[in-house]
Amino acid sequence: EKVPIIRSLLGCLSVLLRAQEAAVWNVSSTLQILDSILTFIIFSKPKIRKAAQYGIAVIVKNSKITPNALGHIAKHCIRLVESVTTGGVTTTLHVLTLLKEIMHKFPKNEMKECCESVLKVMTMKNILLTSCGMQALHGMLENRPAPNCLPAHRNARLISALYNYQPPSDDIQPMQAWLVTMQQAYINLARTDISLCMANIVKLFRQLTELYHGQRPDIMTAVTYCLQAIMTECVAPAAHAKPKFNQPISEIACILEDLLTHKVGTALPHILHLLSAFFKECGEHCAELLTPCLKSVAELRDNTEFTYKSELENTVGSAIRTMGPQIVIDTVPFKITPGDRQFKRSWLLPVFKDNIKNATLKCFVDRFLPLAAVCRNEGDRLKKVNDQIGAVSYDLLQSQIWALLPSFSAHPTDISTSFGSLAKTLGGLLNSRKDLRLIILSTLRKLITHSLETDNKGDIATMGKYAKNYLPILFNIYMTKVTGSDEEGARLATLETIKVYLKISEKVLTKELFDRALEKVQNKESEEFIKENVMDLLKALLPYQQDQDIAKLYNEVIAKIKETDNHKEQKKYYRLLEEILIADSESCVQFLNANIDQINELVLGSLNKSATNSKGARLRCLFELLKRTENPISLLDTVLPEAILCVKDINNRCRETAFQILGHIAKNVDYKDYINILIAGLAGNPTMTSCSLLALAAIVYYIKDSLDPVIEEQLLYNVGLLAVCNTREIASTALSFIKVYLSTFSREKVFKYLPQLIKVLSNMAEDCKRHSRTKTRDILARLVRWFGGESLLKLVPNKDETLRTRIRNLAKIQIRHQKKRESDRQSKATTDISTFTIGNKQKSIEEILNESDSDLPLDDDEVEENERPKKKNKQKTWIAENADEIVDFTDIRASHKITGTKPGSNLAIPTLKKAKPKSDFKTAPDGRLIIMDDKAQDMEEDDDDDDIDFSNRKKKKKKQVIPGFEDSDDDYEPSDDDVLTKTTAAGLGLKRALSVSTLNSSTNTNKYRAGGTGIHRPIKKAVNKKEKRKKGGGNFPVNTGAEYKAIKAKGDIKRKGKPDPYAYLPLRRDALNKRKRMKNMAQVKNILKAAKTGANIGRKFKMKKK
């Protein structure tokens, strides 16, 4: 009963000490209070002990405690740790737990003494002491002690001492704890002295990579994470100063390269992952040191039987990203020669395409362009000799090489110096090679975009210099008629490239192109196809023209909107006008400011002449005009009705624009000025009513915070009236309004109108209910989730049984989903990922040390020990030794022989080897079992010519074949005494009926008798002609359990000489149907329930007889 009081007092004292100034800590009374807390850090009661330890940890971390007081705490802890020699193991464990949190704050001398004490304790050959000691050192290193507390040379000495405490390679948990401790030690050393760290790091790589030969998955994963972290934190900073640390980096590369030449088996993915991290961290600065390693990796991939292809390609991709494609292609050449069709290095092409970054165009011109030329020439040569297969192979390889060009163009560094050598080639290929057109267009766009993003004047000038060459070619390609979707895609890509190229083109060139295009539009003899495409080009050229040219286009072309009867042409005019309205160039803005009234008049007055397909472009023009006007109310009478009618348009972009207009109006105009217009639309035809409801829903969504309660209630009342009408369109839209309302407002506000909502859903017409059942379900699901099924059922009329049933079902589904989410949350919290993946976060040392060994394979001796009752779960310890080498416990490295895992247990193979049980059945030559009845088995045992030796088999009671189950179709020697159970094939198709084989009859009419392996193995049993005539021909499935069915009574009855009948569920394919899962579960429950009921009745009847 004193535990809560003591805990509270300890908490008060810790808070009091935290609040003290630094000067107070030098007073002896303060240390006395501190001693009173320290007394309880090893207390036997866990709650009191944890409270005291927490108080000390908080004081050390978050107070103005002085070094003298910290030294006082350290000496107290050291004294308690060393008490282990007098038998205080538990005390030492408690103190080590505390040291994990506070050790990094100790002064220099006290930290040294504390580390020595911990290391001394770890030599006691006690698994728990070793684990807790490692945990304390890991906590100290992870918290990054100050350099003046843990100098670099002392950190290095600690690393050297930890090598003596390396656990055996087959002891998983201690090895994982040791690895993470060494990881933190090296990272902390690199933070203080990178030179000293690199001097010791090669030893770590050499020692840890040896663990890969053990083939233990958990150990390999821990080693990979450890070395990867060290590469990132230690090797990467050293790589920046490459001349100084070339030697250790080169030795690390040699160690990893040697691993590739050895047979490391399942450790190869880990090694490739390490190499990928190595290339990532050091490839940019130490590329020349890594090329031998890269060459060895590529040679592995040349083997067609290599397994880990994706891991290896990821490693090569990492090298390409950091070292650059030029070094990689020089180290790993493609080896493409005329006449050779092996293409062993063709796997490099997609790897290059995905990983090229910050490359140079010169690399493509020097290394890849000649290869593409070789492939092209060889393909042409093979076409001439009519070798189509070879020609297609080389053409495909050539296309893959050219596909690398966009990757080179993404972020090039030499546009101004190297594009000139490539420009003429690309221009010629644009005209002559349709198959490469998309690649070249993408290249041009990426080069221009990169130049604009980096604002490199030289690159922009270089690309702009070739605009006079490329733009006419692009214009001609876009103006050419095409056939097929592929060429149409190239046309659209050409238009996008034109738009991008115009950004860096000279104004003189754009003016010239604009004048030519305008002449073609005004030429009445031009074809309609030419006119439409030229207007697309005019739209692209428009932002780069002077206001006089824009006015000329407007007056001579766009002003014809009212006059034209060509719907496509009218749509183009609206799009030209839209471009003028949205363009942000200075000339367009000047033209708009001067002609805004004229444009307003043109757009607002052309409603009667506008075509249906122009609706979207016209609406966008209205939206732009609405945003530019100072008095939006003046345009409401024209814009709002048109926007309302477009909220149900078939075009998605048109609908989005309509809702944007409604949102703009809601934010800039008082809703009381136009709400009546929307409500008036509810009295129109079904289409108008439906559109008005959707518009009202949008307005309510935007003005939810300022909506008047009176208007809100009026809207809900009108929506309720419309929902119960007989028109499907109106009722469905009314439900959409209700869905928006539920999503917009809080559940407290919805609860006020809940009875009205339920009444509306109940009173809907049956036809509308059926048509809008999905929306109704969504509404009910939200209401059930908010208010519960019982609350809703009270509001539903008793006569509406359908709605009540739906609510009950939704409530069940909600409960089921809630339970599933809870179980998923729990399973997610308890799931432990032990497999190696790149993105996994490594385990903390607490998780490693708290893991259980319950998943490890057990030997027979351990099983027997586990079967005995245990008084206490005690940690087991083994000594790994043999008759020739006895462990010397006075040696400091004796801890290598003390293991928590039983020696000899192989964890590399996850499957547990078990002795094969002796079978009562014979085995056929192809591995199938021979199951026969008693008579046939007796005859077989007497046969001297039997191929299978059963002489050493023990005599056992022969098992009776379960009646009602037919023998397998794959029996090696079918019995003549098998009984064909009668059944019916009614309702089954011929294919399904013939898919299940029947048993042999006593007469075999077939001359050929199946037997052996492969296609000669017996699959179907022969049926005599008499049975075929009786059955109607064909083979039929067996109705298992039919012989137990009673003739008069219900259920099954016992048969003489046969086992008791039993309830069962047949394993049918339809049981996997997700939609029938609940039905199948109900069947299982019913069977179990019936079995329990029958058992209870039988028990009561038996008791009555007694």
Automatic annotation (TrEMBL):
Keywords linked to the UniProt accession: Nucleus, Signal
Signal peptide: 1-19
Pfam family, one: HEAT_RRP12_N
Matches recorded under InterPro entries: ARM-like, ARM-type_fold, HEAT_RRP12, HEAT_RRP12_N, RRP12
Residue ranges with Acidic residues bias: 850-865, 939-949, 966-978
Positions of region (Disordered): 816-835, 850-876, 934-978
Family: Belongs to the RRP12 family.
Domain RRP12 N-terminal HEAT: 5-143
Residue intervals of the RRP12 HEAT domain: 215-480
A cellular component term, taken from the record's GO annotations: nucleus
Compartments (UniProt record): Nucleus
Protein name: Uncharacterized protein
